[in-house]
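RETRY 2/3 - previous attempt timed out on the joint model. Re-submitting the same 977-residue input unchanged.
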Amino acid sequence: MQKIFYVNWRDKSVALFEDESIDDLEMELSQDTNKYLDNPESGLELIKRTLFRNSEKNVCTKFDTIISEKIFPVLSELELENELEIYQTLIKISKQIKEQQKINLLEGKKILGVGGQFSAGKSCFINSITNAKLPVDQRPTTSIATYIIYAETPKNLAITLYNNVIGLDDYAMDAITHKFYKQYQLGFSKLIKNLVVHTPDFQYPNIAILDTPGYSKADMPKKEENQDKGMAREQLKAADYLIWLADSENGLLVEPDLEFISSLNVNSEILIVFTKASLKTEEDLEKIIQNTKNTLENRNMKIYGVIAYDSPSKETVIGKGILEQFLDMINNSMDDSSDITEQIRNINILLENQLELQRSQLQDKIKSLEEILIQTSNIEHISAIVKEYSKCQSTMHLLNENGKKLMNNMMELQSITQEMKGVQQ
Amino acid sequence: MKTDKINDVLIVLSKIMDEKCKEESIAEQLFDEFEYIVNEKLIPLIGKSFCKNKYQFIESISNLCKDISLYLYFPSIINTAVIGIYNPQKFTDKLLCHRLIEDSLVLDEASLSASVFTMIHARLNQDQQIQCLNLSEKNVALTNGGYRELLNYAKTEKLDLAGVSFGFSIPSEKVNTKQSYVVIPENIDVQNKYYVSMIHAVDILIVQTKECNIDAIKNYKYLSKLFLYGKISKKSKKKIDKYCKRAEIDINYFNSLSEILDELSANQESITNFCYKYDLENIFYDILLDLSVRKTALEKPLIDINDNLLFREDEESYKIVKNLQKEYCEKIDNLMNFYTEYRNICEKLIQLIEQIQECFDIKEDGTYINKHIPMDKILFDFILKSSEIYKVFPELDSKGKLRNDCKIYKQDFGKDAIINVILNDFMGDEQSISDLEKFEKLQSDSIFYKRKKLKLWDKLLLESADCAEIIYSINDSLTGVEKRILGEHYLKFDVTSTAKGYLLDALRMGEEDAGNIIMDSLMDITEQERRLLADYGVKEAAFQIAEGLYNG
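RETRY 2/3 succeeded.
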C-alpha cells in the first residue's frame, strides 16, 4: 500500500500520497473548486444523504425461505452432478433480487465485468473504451464498483448501502470517488454499493460495463486483502461476461489471477487484456500472449481471446479487432440470461435434464441387472446383484419423489419472481 | 450549525470511516486464518460433497464465525454476564445514561446511539477509550469529546449512524468487571451484520412489559433470564410465562427499570462465554456422522459381493459382480479421501480456536466450559455422535478421547449413569441395570439420544409402543429402520394399511426385513405391490409371482 503523508494546505490537513509532490496537490486542489469540499456543511449533507435508511421490508424473504428450507435440503439428497452450480445460481439470484434498484437501472443490459489486480489499469482501460472519465487513481479504500452505461443525457447515480438511489452532480461524484478521501481521509465504499455513470459517449447501448475494485495488493495485511478479494469476487460474480486485465509488465497471467478467475464460475468466454502495452516490445507481447493462451488451454478455461492494449492511445497492439468483436457480440447477444425469471427457467431446464439423465442411467442399470437375474440358474449365488437391483429400484423411487418435490418448489420460486416482476412493472 | 462544529463532526466521521488496516492483535490474526480456512477450504470442500444437510452446516459454521468475531471486536464482554437492554429511547435514555455511563459523557440527550447497539463495560484503566466498530470491521478509538459531537449531531440532524458503524463500546467505572451491558435501540438496523451475533451474546434481557414480544425474544438464542418492568395484563403475563417456561428462561417482574439496575448491580456473577472448541467440534461431527452412515451403507453390499465372487456362476454375472466390487471400493476410497481431507481441516480449525482462546487465558477443559450456550446439550450430543462415529472411523485414541469427553461431561453436568451407558455401549462393556433404568427415564430433546435409545431397545426393555413414541418425537427425517419399527407397531394393532405404508417406505430405504414382514404378516397385497416387493428382492414375493406364471 502507498504511504500517505499529511500536509497542511490552506489550514486543512490534506493527504498526500508518496508518489505526489506538494506542487501536484496544490495544482489539483486549486484547479477547480468543489462545493462539497469547500463548504463542510455541504460535504456533511452529502454524507447524510448516502446514510438515509428506509424502513422497507425485505422482498426477498419468501424467495430465501423457499431456497433454504425447501430446495436445498432436497437438492442435497439428489446427488446431482451440477448441484453446486445450481446452488450458486440460486444464491446469485437471491442477491440480485436484494439489489432490485440496481436491476431496475440496468434492466435489459448485459453486465460486462472488468476485473484485475489493483495496478492493472482498469479505470484507464474503461475510460478508453467508454469515453467516460472515471478517476484513475482510486485507492483501494475509495473504490466503489461502478457501472458505465449508455444514455442520451449524462448523469451519475449512486445506489446506497440501504438501496436508495441518489443523484450526484459531477462535484459530488468527484468528491465521493476521490477528493473526499484526499481531504478528510473519508471513504464512501461502505456507504455506496454502486455508482452508475450514464454517458452518451459509450457506443454499446445493451452493455453495462462494471468497473470493480482491484482484488489484491502484495503488501496488504491478510484481512484487508481478503475483504477486497471478497468484494471484487461478489461484484464480478454478478457479471454475465468478463474482461480480465493484467499488467503486461508482469509478463504473464499470475497464479492468483488464474485462481481468482476460476472462483468466479463465469459461464461465458473471457477476454484477457494485457494493459500498458506501450511499455513492451511487440515481440515480448506476442510471447506473453502465446504463453497465456497455452496456460489457459491447459486449465480448460473458456477464453474468447487474449490481446495487448494501450489505454492512453486507445490502441489494440496485438489482437486487433478482437475487443470490438467481443463488445459487438455482447451488445447483439439475444441471450436473456440476466433476467431472473429466465435464470430460474434455465435452472429448471438444467434440473430436468439432470434428473432425466440420472433416471435413464438408472433405468439402463436396472435393465442390465434384470437380464442377469432372469438368466441365472442359482439366484443365491448372485445375491449381490439382487440387492443391487433392489437398491436401484429404491434409488429410482427416491429420485422420482425428490425430483417431483424439487420441480414443485422450483415452480413456486418461478411464480414468486413473476409476482415480483408484476409488482415492479 | 457552526463551521467548526461541522469540521469536528467530519473529523470524527473520517476517523470512523477509516478503512485503512490497523495492526491486528494476535487473536485477530489467528481468527483471520481461521476464517480464511473456513471460507477458502472448508466450505468449498463441503459444497462439492454429497453430505446430508450440507447447507445447514455451511450456515452454522458461518454464523459461528460471526459470533466469535463479535467477542474479538468487543473483548471486554468476554467472560462477563451480558445484559441486553431493549431501549425505546425516549423513555429510558436518560436513566440508562446516568446509571451506566460516566458523567463526563452524559449529555442532555443522545448519549447513546439511536440506530446501532452500544456495549457498556467496566473501565479497566484510565487509558481505555470509546471504540467504534466501523463497517470495514475495524475498531476505531474515539475521544469522549468526539463521541459527544457525533452523537449530538446524529440526534439533531438525524444522521443514521448504522451506515458507518456496527456498534460502539464504552468503558465505564459504573459497570462492574463481571458484567457488561448492551443497549439495543428501538430503531436498530436488523440487517446489521453483527445484530444476530450481538443478540446471541445476551444472557439477561431487560424489556419494558409493553414492548415484550415473544417473537422478538425467540431470537435471543441463549437467553437465560428475562427481566420485565412496568404494568402487565394477566393475559400477556400468562403467555410470556408459558413461553419462558418452555424455553427454560428464568423470568422476573419488576416495577421499574431502576429497580432492575439495582438488582443487577448487587449481583456479581460472571458468565464464561468465550469457549467454542466443543461447539465447533459438535458442528463438525454432523458431517462425520453422515459420513459414517454412508460408509456403513457402502460396506454392507461388499459382504455379498465378495461372497458371490467365490461362486463364479457364469462369466456375465461374474463380470457384473466384479464391477460392483470395483464400484463400491472406489466409492469407499473417495469417501475416505474426503474424510481425511475434512478431518485435517477440522483439526487445524480446532487448533486455531484453542490458540485464539488461549490469547484470553482460556483453556477449554472440564473446569473451564462455556456457560453461556447450552453446553450440557451440546456436549451430550457430541458424546453421542462421537460414540457412533468412532465405531466407523476409529482414530488412534478414540477410546481415550471419548473417555475424556465423558469425564468432562460428568464433572460439569453430572448424569454419570447416562454417560456410563453410552461409554459402555461403545466399549462393548456390560451395562449396569440401574444405569440403564436412568438412561431410559432421561428427559431429553436430543435426537441423537432418542436414536441411541432405539438402538439399545432390547437392553432398555422397550416395547414397540415405547419405540413408536420415541420415533414420533424425532424431529428429523426418519430412517428405514425407524419406519420399519413404526410399521411393525401398527401391525400389532391391525392398522394394516398404515403399517404397509411404513413397511414399504422402509423397504425402499434399504430395510430388507420390512419386505419379509409384509409377506409374513398375511397382509392383503395387490399384484402391483407383490411385484414391487419382488423388485426389492423379497424372495417370497418373487416366488409367488413365479409360481403364478408357472401355473399359467
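The two ends of chain B are 102 Å apart (CA to CA). Closing ticket.
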